[in-house]
Amino acid sequence: IAKYIPDPFGMKQTKVLLSENEIIKMAKGYDMEGNETAYWNNKFAEPVGGIHSTAADMLQFIKNPISGSDDASNLSHNLTFGDVTAGIGLTWDIYTTKKGYLRWAHEGGTYGFSSLLMIYPELKSGIILMTNNGDHDDQAFYDIGTAIYLSLTDK
To answer: H helices of 16-84, where?
Structure first.
């Protein structure tokens, strides 16, 4: 995984395997009722839920698709279904906002952890939200990301 994601993007803290010291520093996850959850460990699905990262590394990741300099990243944003008003790329939801800006988004989570990444290439901006509480299908997460986007475009 390092060859294709963290290394080319300069993400020095993003990895699958963590040291004991890194595991101790990890946040605890909590479900919607506030109960602590176990860390998700599924060797067969590491690429979709077993990659550990930091906010700083995710901001580094956002720079690449905005620059358009990476062929693999560019390919992942090509439509495979729908159109730019509401479609899907290889790994991204593709959407045009009411203000006419293209948005690439991807969300996910594991037990007690959620993340949402929204990239607005025309604004040269991205938003990463990560939490250690709740359900990654929570609409409130998208609402927070949308509120941040609106604050960027309401100038």
So the answer is: 20-25, 46-49, 55-67, 71-76
Q: pLDDT tens for residues 94-138?
A: 999 989 999 999 988 888 888 899 999 999 999 999 989 876 666
Give the separation between CA 45 and CA 31, rounded to whole angstroms. 21
User: Which amino acid is residue 145, in one-letter code?
Assistant: G
Residue that is written with structure tokens 């992942």 in the block: 76
Q: Whole-angstrom Cα distance, residue 59 to residue 117?
A: 10
How far apart CA 81 and CA 12 sit, in angstroms, is 33
Amino acid identity of residue 52, one-letter, is: H
Q: Which two tokens stand for residue 133?
A: 């509480």
Rg (CA), the chain: 16
Cβ-based neighbours of 35, under 8 Å, separated by 6 or more: none
